[in-house]
Amino acid sequence: MAESAIKICGISSPVALAAAAEAGATHIGIVFSEDSPRFVRPRDARALVKDAPPGVTRVGVFVNAEESLLERAIPGARLQILQFHGDETVEELKKIKARHKLTIWKAIAVSTASDLEKAKRFKGVADGILFDARTPKASRLPGGTVKTLDWKLLEKYTHRQPWGLSGGLTADNVTRALEMTGAPLVDVSSGVESAPGIKDATRIKAFVEAVRAA
């Protein structure tokens, strides 16, 4: 299996960003959703990524975002990928892609096999699909809840576009997740935190090492 890309999501401080880069992460995610404990204000994003290594791809995470937010966040964080975690439609993403000329990822919440099929509608619009665990109905968070999806659902699934795996991954379970799914990209947030929104350098390093050893 080819070496998987690694995204450390919910980066909200220069210290956390440096830890992710030093550990060997290929992508960092910056959350622009106010409901998240990892929320970064667009006006703070510029300072956050000021010393980001050029080899680490910057991903902005949005949930049903207004265009005004995108217009501030994209240049502020010098975003290279836009990841959407809300109820965005195919038409909405088409317009965003045409307007901003950036790579688009769409997160799909998965709890049953039928959820995987929802990815088909975004073919040709989303450049990548991120399969994530479905959050509890009472939760306002789109992710970062430590909940995993059933990896067996992905074992024999035929993917029609680039994709990644998210939802409850940790250094302890990512090897098994990769064995079962062969995910070309893994995305972690709460699994490398000491508290909600607080990234832990030791856990980030352990996670990256586990992926590289898989």
Describe the structure.
Helix content is 30%, strand content 21%. With 214 residues, it is of the alpha/beta class. It has one domain (5-213): Aldolase class I (TIM Barrel). The model has no long low-confidence stretch (mean pLDDT 93).
Give the integer mean of the pLDDT values.
Answer: 93
The CATH homologous superfamily name equals Aldolase class I
Oligomer: single chain
For the secondary structure, the number of strands is: 10
Q: Can you name the CATH architecture?
A: Alpha-Beta Barrel
Helix content: 25-40%
Q: How big a fraction of the residues is strand? A: 15-25%
The secondary structure category is alpha/beta
Distance between the termini: 9 Å
Q: What is the name of the CATH topology? A: TIM Barrel
